[in-house]
Amino acid sequence: MDPLDEAINDLLERNPTASAQKLSDAIIGHLESSLPDALRQMPVGATPLIQAKIMEMMLRRMNSTRKAMSKQRMSSQEQFARELYEMKFRLNVDDFSGTSVPVVDGWRTASETRLRTEVDGFSMDSTPFDSVDQDRDSERNPIRDQKLGTYSSRLGSNHVGKVRRFDLNEEITQKLSADIAYQIVAKTVEQAARQFAESSTLEWDFQLLLESDIEIPSWKRLVLQISALGADFEERIALWEELDKSVRQKISELNSQEVLQGTVKPPSESLFLRMDMS
Amino acid sequence: MTEAHPFSEDLMAAKLAMDKDNFYLMSILGNRIMSNAVFLTQDPKPVLLAGVFVKDVATELLLVSARAKTEPISTARATAKPFLDKIGSMALSGKFDDSAFWSMYEDFIEKVRRFAIVEVEEKSYSANRKFTAIVVEWLVRYLSENKKLLLDHRNQLFGGILNELGRIFRVHGAAKKELVVIVVLGYLEKLYAYVRFASTKTDGTLEPDLVQSEIYPFVEKLPQILKGEDVALTEGTSLLVDLALKWRSYFIRYFELRFAQGVVPEQGIELPEETKKKITEAVTRTMEKRSKSR
Known about the structure:
The structure holds two protein chains of two kinds.
Chain A: H1 3-14, H2 20-41, H3 49-61, H4 64-92, H5 110-120, H6 127-130, H7 142-148, E1 163-168, H8 170-178, H9 180-198, E2 203-212, E3 220-229, H10 233-252, H11 257-260, E4 270-275
Parallel strand pairs in A: 1-2, 3-4
Antiparallel strand pairs in A: 2-3
Chain B: H1 7-19, H2 23-39, H3 45-67, H4 73-93, H5 98-112, H6 119-124, H7 129-145, H8 157-172, H9 176-199, H10 208-225, H11 229-254, H12 273-293
Helix pairs in contact in B: 1-2, 1-4, 2-3, 2-11, 3-4, 3-11, 4-5, 7-8, 7-9, 7-10, 8-9, 9-10, 9-11, 10-11
């Protein structure tokens, strides 16, 4: 018997005189009130790193048809995980008033939190916060889920997404707060790079730099420094080309209101993408 | 600033958390900065406002990072960082200037608001501070004229108001005067959450006294700060300091409200009509089966 029928039979045993409508309302009411907690407790499949690596190797050996099917399946799993994750996040976002770093198994009492905080100090990279087991207490410590990315890609490790780092050098950082044109371009480059990385099976490090030319120091150029971890030489060359195309395409589509109205012109510096081949 | 005050260390921790994209922790450190301002006898304003700023930076960045893994969070963080450095230095220098603080706040919002809106909004909306000003005035008047709603235990007035203001200032931008009101309203909501909790009777309704004595005076002062930018900067800042101090004091008394006893349980998730229909059909079918088998 399916669980719903079983539950209905059980309810009928206990409430033999209840009408069908009353019973339906009771079941619906119960489901609706239980759903938030059920969703909070649902783990969002994080794939252990080793399994991810095995999957990655298997994919490489598949023929193109099987590869496409596997990728499609993984993509729909990823989509489901993303939606579940977003729903969990929405359910959990509250305006916290706290002053203490929450303990790994949730906030219990003020004194326990205080004691734990004294032990942890500011060890923001401490093991509990990076623990794979974080899903278990996500209902008590919601925004940490968001930070640590409790859903991770099928082929990703357990950190947030495929992009391990995306850094900006000091020179471009200073430009960003002073000049909206740089902000628009940097934002577009980062978005394009992250989108490309998330659709790949690799992990990536990026750095966006504003560099001076060695021979003509007044000539500045934007450089996106790329590291595709675990890719061999040939793969890197191919990815470099694809990423270059993808980023330039996004830049050419720049059409925020400011750009459309002509109040902001994208900076004239050339953009270079540089792949780390070491 | 007295030697005993750990503000510079709190600020360093907030910056470290920001560098590590841990905006949740950064928000907590903003709370911590504000709470520490309660404990010392010196003028709490510089530290409190720096705490407000740290928390707002964290909130804006949380909004960006919560959307998707492909959002440009590093560019958003790098855009916000120089502002945090400036506000921190100003609070540490002992030469805090309300006008300079709000100018930086305005500039910060103008630079980061685009990160928290979706592509469709970014492509469609242009800056329209006049519209934001009209909405702020309308909502402040609405709140003022309907403050009795705050005594109704079902009301979500501040949530509703801040929701409208949030979407509007992010797509259209806001001038200093309106930003002051928006920030003040945010802290009024935080204080109201505690006052509401403290006023809740066993049947779930609200005892009016505390709401009237703690919240009404702030609501009544809000229209005043809309009279002009100078008034907004002086009176608005003063309201904000009072609100933040009260909020942190209530936190000591009641801790996190989500863990407090007696908080009304959350609303459930509504099932789709189709699912409801299927459940009703399953119940009817099972009842029919049972009656036939008897």
